[in-house]
Design brief:
The complex is a heterodimer. By secondary structure, chain A is mainly α. Chain A has 13 helices and two strands. Chain A has helices at 2-32, 39-64, 72-88, 93-117, 123-142, 152-159, 167-185, 187-197, 199-204, 209-235, 246-256, 268-287, 292-315, and strands spanning 161-162, 165-166. In chain A, strand 1 and strand 2 form a beta hairpin. Chain A is globular, with a radius of gyration of 20 Å. Chain B is an alpha/beta fold. Chain B folds into three domains: 8-242, Rossmann fold; 246-333 and 418-504, P-loop containing nucleotide triphosphate hydrolases (Rossmann fold, 3-Layer(aba) Sandwich), CATH 3.40.50; 348-412, no CATH class. In chain B, strand 1 and strand 2 form a beta hairpin. Classes of the chains: A mainly alpha, B alpha/beta.
Chain lengths: 317, 504
């Protein structure tokens, strides 16, 4: 009897394990700080999480094909700089600048994809190189100085609100829904899973896995560029060192959410939950007044515990 | 189709690879409908011939005629369009996708424009194919939750959904139990009734004679002959395959049964093994039979310390021991040749020399450095002793045939002079010649006083090689037989839950 009860609990945990962890963290912070569960703070958490979550969604596509994209932080910085530079220095205006940024991201994603499929370079290596190149290009383009002077219309994309919701949060919602539908209900989405599950079988089924892989790096480049635009808008300027290290959070989010680094397994829902675990932790630890040095240690420990619980519940099956 | 015109004719097919004439003017015909077995040792050209038929390779010479018309097959899609489908030995389903997604991969019903998939239609259609094969499998189930046999059937459903009227099955039974094999054979027979032709590649001649209408033998890239199964026998086919007399298929063991080396009492692993008693004598080969999931591998792994025993005890040479890791088992003179050669047994990218000496590094190492010439000498000695066919000691393991890979794993253990050798499915997927060599080697070891425990799903192997046979069912011992006392029926009855029969 007791056994079957435990089994039931384990089964529930298995299906929703990361979600349960997120709820647990929320509960701890809600008990620890009266400021945590307020509308304004929750919107703040959503805003802080939105950019990580957007690039994590793009990352999810690459990881589902058993790839990875380490260049997203650099792509954010470069495309943010391009957006501000084009908008301010070249006088292309806000939307010209944003368009240029998105094209930059897509092009870098395409280069990543081509290096992987044509060059045969492992994704880890190809995008690691692109991480350095992207950061270098950002420094060259900005000459190491911030690009400021963007106008209100630009800033609106990072700080504005529509029906009370921060614009980046709305964009996140739109992108998450689109990504969900693409992965769950389209051929392309199924082929992303198939490519990560077994590339050879996919090829034998008449699907060119190379095209799928190229597409996922382009998607990741696009979401990184969008993230860069939003970050620039939020900071009112493009910083050459912006988003340094963000690729790690962008990878941690899907992995926390159950996306397998070996490909073929995972969901957008999981990635979102993973991103919010990261966002809520940062926010809550600040509210509790924990010194930032300790915060990093606590974050790492929580990640380990989350992944261990995930593995444990999967083994019990 | 007329009765005398063959459904498929492959005429005078030749194919050369650098340095090898893989096929030389081979002519192969399949009627409609029939089950046509294709046999031959590894390297005989079966796979090359089938790859040409299914478009993965293109012949240098010769032509393929399908239903009287010349067929141009240049790519797998050409073969598919002609109704030819192949089920590969290594199942190629994607484990994380559902059965339905796998069956219709690349052909999902739905709108062309937005690429949206109509899941309801997909699963309905997939379920129809599964039902047609009378499979108890849900189209929405994930493939990773299915047994190997079920996955095999899903591959058949996939082939049928492609409108195949010729299905090539490459060793479909190598991972199946007897019972599952018979289910597959039933399906093959009913497909034939419906007009589907099947080409069946197998190393198990017993199965060939059970299921096939005709059998074609290849050897060294040449056609040796095609025979109706009713007009030939295993001896003739083996002669055709190896081109020489094999002597006795299963040489009688001459080992002298000596004192007990391993004794297990009430052994359980808390999972698949429930209170198993076992004795293994020096100089004997103890065969462990049973269906997949009967706990045979669990028994081997628990004895070897891969799994932890939660109850019971193990005695080695009469002394009670606690073996909680493979390292400890090795120190006490035990060795395990695992079930999955590629995943568990070999370092595929390492050389023959490295694969052989890796367990015996102590013998060839000084101050932490491997002495290359001593390693070479040690490996070379075993390559010679076991007649491992490799161009050099530097050849990578992945390039050897299955039989030679298996011999290499056995060689690795023999460097340690084990007292107890456990082999889990030692000849799975290995051709007839190499199989006989491995059996001879096991006999030789038994004669030298090693206690040999062999797990096998092949009844003829169990019957032919073992001195004593232990049958398992649902994690328990369902019967023990001396080789001369047991019939295949006795063993199957014990394995499937007929009356438990305790001989001695």
């Amino acid at each position: 009897m007791g056994d079957s009860f435990i089994d039931q609990v384990v089964e529930i945990l298995r299906q929703f394990s990361v979600f349960v962890i997120l709820l647990g963290i929320v509960l701890v912070f809600a008990l620890g700080s009266s400021d945590f569960l307020t509308t304004s703070n929750l919107l703040n958490v959503a805003l802080q999480t939105s950019m990580i979550a957007i690039i994590a969604i793009g990352m999810t596509f690459t990881i589902l094909t058993a790839g990875i994209d380490l260049s997203v932080g650099s792509v954010m910085a470069l495309s943010g700089a391009v957006a501000a530079g084009m908008a301010v220095r070249q006088g292309w205006g806000t939307y010209g600048g944003i368009a240029a940024a998105l094209v930059t991201g897509v092009m870098i994603g395409a280069v990543n994809g081509l290096l992987v499929i044509k060059g045969g370079i492992p994704p880890f290596v190809a995008t690691l190189a692109m991480m350095t190149i992207g950061r270098g290009l950002t420094l060259v383009y900005t000459q190491g100085r911030p690009v400021a002077g963007i106008d209100k219309r630009f800033i609106f994309w990072g700080t504005g609100r529509v029906i009370g919701l921060p614009v980046p949060v709305i964009l996140l919602a739109v992108i998450a829904v689109v990504a969900y539908v693409v992965l769950r209900h389209t051929r392309f989405g199924l082929y992303v899973y198939a490519t990560g599950g077994n590339e050879e079988t996919t090829r034998l089924a008449g699907i060119p896995p190379d095209r799928i892989k190229l597409a996922v790096y382009v998607i990741s480049g696009f979401t990184a560029a969008l993230g860069g635009v939003l970050l620039t808008a939020r900071l009112w300027s493009a910083q050459p060192n912006a988003a340094t290290g963000w690729e790690l959070d962008a990878i941690a989010a899907p992995v926390l959410g159950g996306v397998s680094l070996f490909g073929g397994v995972g969901s957008i829902g999981g990635t979102l939950v993973g991103a919010f675990i990261i966002g809520v932790l940062s926010n809550g630890l600040n509210l509790l007044g924990i010194q930032s040095y300790y915060q990093q240690v606590i974050k790492g420990v929580v990640f380990i515990l989350a992944v261990m619980l995930d593995l444990f519940t999967k083994q019990r099956r | 189709m007329s009765d005398n015109g063959a459904f498929l004719q492959m005429k005078n097919i030749s194919k050369a690879f650098p340095g090898v004439q893989a096929l030389e003017r081979v002519t192969f015909e399949v009627d409609c409908p029939e089950i046509h077995a294709l046999v031959g040792e590894n390297g005989a050209g079966k796979t090359t011939l089938m790859k040409i038929l299914t478009g993965a390779l293109h012949q240098d010479e010769g032509e393929i005629v399908l239903q009287g018309a010349r067929a141009a097959i240049h790519a797998p899609s050409d073969a598919q369009a002609l109704g030819i489908s192949m089920i590969h030995q290594e199942l190629s389903l994607i484990p994380y996708l559902t059965v339905g997604q796998n069956i219709y991969l690349g052909r999902e019903p739905g709108s062309r424009i937005l690429g949206m998939i109509d899941w309801t239609a997909l699963y309905d259609r997939a379920q129809q194919w599964l039902d047609r094969l009378s499979l108890d499998v849900e189209a929405r189930a994930e493939v990773q939750d299915l047994s190997i046999a079920q996955q095999q059937m899903v591959e058949v459903a996939k082939a049928l959904s492609l409108d195949a009227d010729l299905i090539v099955m490459d060793e479909p039974t190598s991972a199946l139990t007897e019972r599952e094999t018979h289910v597959l054979f039933d399906v093959m027979h009913s497909l034939r009734e419906e007009g589907v032709s099947l080409i069946f590649i197998s190393h198990r001649l017993g199965e060939v004679f059970e299921v096939a209408d005709r059998v074609t033998v290849l050897r060294d890239g040449q056609l040796i002959g095609t025979r109706p199964v009713a007009e030939t026998d295993e001896d003739e086919i083996v002669r055709m395959m190896v081109g020489r007399e094999l002597g006795e298929m299963y040489p009688q063991a001459k080992g002298e049964r000596q004192d007990v080396v391993v004794e297990a009492i009430n052994l359980s692993d808390g999972d698949e093994l429930h209170g198993v008693d076992l004795t293994l004598h020096r100089g004997e080969i103890l065969g462990v039979a049973g269906l997949v999931g009967a706990g045979r591998t669990a028994l081997a792994e628990t004895l070897f310390g891969v799994r932890r025993a939660v109850t019971g005890e193990v005695r080695l040479n009469g002394e009670r021991v606690k073996i909680s890791s493979p390292g400890e088992a090795i120190k006490r003179g035990m060795a395990l040749v695992p079930e999955d050669r590629k995943q568990q047994g070999l370092f595929m990218n390492m050389t023959v020399r490295e694969n052989i000496v890796i367990s015996a590094l102590d013998m060839v190492t000084r101050w932490g450095f491997v002495n290359a010439s001593r390693a070479r000498e040690l490996a070379g000695r075993f390559v010679e002793r076991l007649d491992i066919r490799t161009p050099s000691l530097r050849q990578r393991a992945r390039n050897l045939s299955g039989g030679n890979q298996q011999k290499m794993i056995i060689a690795r253990w023999l460097t340690l002079k084990p007292e107890v050798l456990i082999l889990d499915e030692p000849t799975r997927g290995i051709d007839v010649g190499a199989k006989a060599e491995i059996h001879a080697l096991m006999n030789q070891l038994a004669q030298d006083g090693v206690g040999v425990l062999m797990v096998s799903s092949e009844l003829p192997e169990i019957m032919g090689v073992s001195d004593r046979i232990l049958v398992m069912r649902e994690g328990r011992v369902a019967g023990t037989f001396m080789r001369d006392e047991a019939t295949q029926d006795d063993i199957m009855r014990a394995a499937t839950g007929g009356k438990a029969n305790h001989g001695r």
